[in-house]
Amino acid sequence: MRASKNIIEEYRNADAEKRLYLFLSHRSLRDEFLEIDQSDTSVGFSETRIKNKCRMCQNWGQSLIGALK
Question: Cys staple from 18: which of 11, 14, 44, 60, with CB 3.0 to 4.6 Å?
Fold first, then answer.
């Protein structure tokens, strides 16, 4: 088995598909992988707002309130 440091470094430099493969393959290193993902600035899930909502979702609140009346 490869050294943990090498696997962690490979994970740090990998794309999303390779990261998933490594995450699933190396259960004992998952805590380290999660720390990398949480500190990775290139992954901005909650930082960026969705600018264009889908048409079905635009007025879902008003549709729901109208249905309850």
Answer: 14
**39: which 2 tokens?**
């500190």
pLDDT in tens, 15-30: 999 999 999 999 999 9
Q: d(Cα 7, Cα 27) in Å, to the nearest integer?
A: 12
CB neighbour list of residue 33: distance below 8 Å, 6 or more residues apart: 8, 11, 19, 22, 23, 26
- Which amino acid belongs to residue 33? F
Locate 28 and state its tokens: 């004992």
Helix 4-13 and helix 16-25: axis angle, to 10°?
Answer: 150
Tokens 């990775």 correspond to: 40
For 54, the token pair is 């889908």
The structure's pTM equals 0.56
